[in-house]
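User: Could you check the structure of this?
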Amino acid sequence: MEGTIRSTTILGIIHNGQAAIGGDGQVTLGNTIMKHNALKIRKISGGKVLCGFAGASADAFTLMERFEDKLEQYRGNVNRAAVELAKEWRTDRYLRKLEALLAVVSADTALIISGNGDVIEPQDQIVAIGSGGNYALAAAKMLKKYSTLSAAEIAKESLSTASEICIYTNTNINVEIIEN
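Assistant: Sure, the predicted structure tokens are below.
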């Protein structure tokens, strides 16, 4: 995958009939916090797919729009849309320069999409990106395995844990859900 993208943490999870994605609100420019309440997650495709991003905002919004177009083109098939976006992202001269990662969650699929052409579908249905992603991922894995929390609660608690460790992650956490 691409180098570490700082300034955010996004975590998506599918658990016990619920899909959730959460993100913190911090925007960092260099070593300065510029904003505390950014919204880095979206419901797309009529609310059937959740998407979060890490990286340059303008690049991420461009990629989310392209992903939503691919979802429409492939009639909501998340895996096919992700593969087609990754192929286009890797080969298109303009898109190739975009610096962002996407985390995508639907009722039954959790993916990370990168500009290197990667479409990664973790077997445990937990995706995490951004500078605090690995901290949130570790917390989510343990909470999913050893607690009775919902997907939304796991997302929130995992992001909160990441905020205690990662200087690029704050406690202004937003979570979106899809119920099965």
